[in-house]
Amino acid sequence: MDTIALAEAAAHVGRSVRFIAAVQQVSTGKRVLVARQRVQSCHVLHVGDASRQFFKVMCWGETPPTLIQSASTADSDGDSDPMRLSSADSAIKVGDIVLFSFCRIKSYRGNVEAQFILRNEEAATSSTAQLLYRKDRYFSVQDVPLKDSYPMIEWYKQHCREFIGEEEGSLVALTGLKKKNRSTIKDLRENMVASVVCKLRPPKDAAVGHSGGGTGFASEMDGVLLCELIMYDSARDAMTVNLWDQHTEKRFITRLVEHRGAVEIDGIVRIEKAK
């Protein structure tokens, strides 16, 4: 199985692939409405590499994805020794560089993402995650020679402050860093994960609480509530923002729009629409 760059994912829709990526955010214990019929548990990883800074990995099931056992590890001075990950260490954490294998690429409404699937059948192949790098410690896996990991690790060291916090695993720490490095709307770039302080208003000619298809203020798209607003931080700089949340209530949206002060949107991602 070839290892692909995240920017190549769109060319592999419907296939199982392998890729190396740095973990930016970990959201566990989410519950989403599937096909407007059933609620299913899932976990979401936001990852990135040098070719694409923002990429979503959906992990279905009650159990969060964990790292499988690596054969060996090498620390920063080059010594190698057998290692066993404890239950705490086996959790995927912010800042990890991970080899994801047997992940299926899916496309929803033009948005390409990876599906991390754990199968119950012994004969079926499940997705796997193997740790390559964590906190200046290098981990060797059979499928990826250590020297092949160096370019990714060097890229991560140069750019990690742009999209993840120094402290692992905590979205509180991640939020704290972003508050120190807020972006203005005009400075947002494609696939950039940022924190923006802005004000919100509904689009023109939109009625709060409208639901259904078409271009209404809020509509259901494959069982997911899409709330479209306009965010602005100056008279000249404004942008459409789509708020996705399977459990958002219309009364929450109404209160949000009625709020006249500034709000901070943390972890916002700019996505360019396909032409």
Kindly describe this structure.
This protein is mostly beta strands and 275 residues long. The chain has two domains: 3-169, OB fold (Dihydrolipoamide Acetyltransferase, E2P) (Beta Barrel); 182-269, no CATH class. Helices cover 13% and strands 39% of the residues. It has helices spanning 146-163, 171-180, 250-258; strands at residues 3-4, 16-34, 38-48, 55-60, 72-74, 80-81, 97-108, 111-116, 128-134, 137-140, 193-201, 218-221, 224-232, 238-244, 263-269. Strands 2-3-4-8-7 form a five-stranded mixed β-barrel. Strands 11, 12, 13, 14 and 15 form a five-stranded antiparallel beta sheet that branches. A hairpin with a 3-residue loop joins β2 and β3 (38-48). The longest helix is centred in the middle third of the chain and has 18 residues, at 146-163. The radius of gyration is 20 Å and the shape is globular. It starts with a strand and ends in a 6-residue tail after the last strand.
